[in-house]
Amino acid sequence: MNIYTLRQNYRRQNAWGLLASIDLKFCNHNLTQSPKDIRKFVDEICRRIKMKKYGPLYLKKFGESSLEGYSAIQFIKTSSITVHFDDKISDRAFIDIFSCEFFDPFKAKEFSQKYFRAKSARMKILIRR
Predict the structure, then answer these.
(1) Inside any domain, residue 9
(2) CB of 22 within 8 A of CB of 109?
(3) Is 1 a domain residue?
(4) Does the keyword section mention Lyase (predicted)?
(5) Which residues lie below 8 Å from residue 40, measured CB to CB, with a gap of 6+?
(6) CA distances from 14 to 47, 58, 104, 124 (A)
(7) CA end-to-end span of the chain, whole Å?
(8) Average pLDDT over residues 102-111
């Protein structure tokens, strides 16, 4: 699927929103453990997919043993962006972007993979109606 086909399907289904779930593996460990870099990522992804932030970023490292890692949530004018990092197994990142306004999830995936220097990336897209 490409952005043009996705946009047509979105319009044809009279969609309420779009969800992109991006899974990254083997990210740069230093980037996924840096609050400064995580904040910069959220700022930049909002800019790249043309979403306006609503309120402050909530960023916290929590969990226990193998489930510990940073998580972040940024409300946007049209919904939210959430990011979860797993620094114990394969330096993984899980990014969910949901918006009631159409955006380009392919740009989001490409930027996320480059930013965190992930060796692999996959994405699932869901049109919400």
Answers:
(1) no
(2) yes
(3) no
(4) yes
(5) none
(6) 25, 32, 17, 20
(7) 19
(8) 98
112 with 95: CB under 8 angstroms? yes
Domain range for residue 56? 18-124
Length in residues, the chain: 129
Quick one: how far is CA 17 from the chain centroid?
15
Task: Give the integer Cα–Cα distance in Å for 38 and 20.
Answer: 18
How much is the pTM? 0.95
Give the CA angle between residues 21, 128, 16 to the nearest 5°.
Answer: 125
Q: What is the CATH number of the domain that holds 91?
A: 3.60.90.10
Higher pLDDT, 88 or 80: 80
Question: Each residue of 4-23: pLDDT tens digit?
Answer: 999 999 999 999 999 999 99
Q: What is the pLDDT of residues 53-82, one digit of tens each?
A: 999 999 999 877 777 899 999 999 999 999
Amino acid (1-letter code) at residue 1? M
The separation between CA 92 and the C-alpha centre of its own chain, rounded to angstroms, equals: 12
* pLDDT number for residue 66: 72
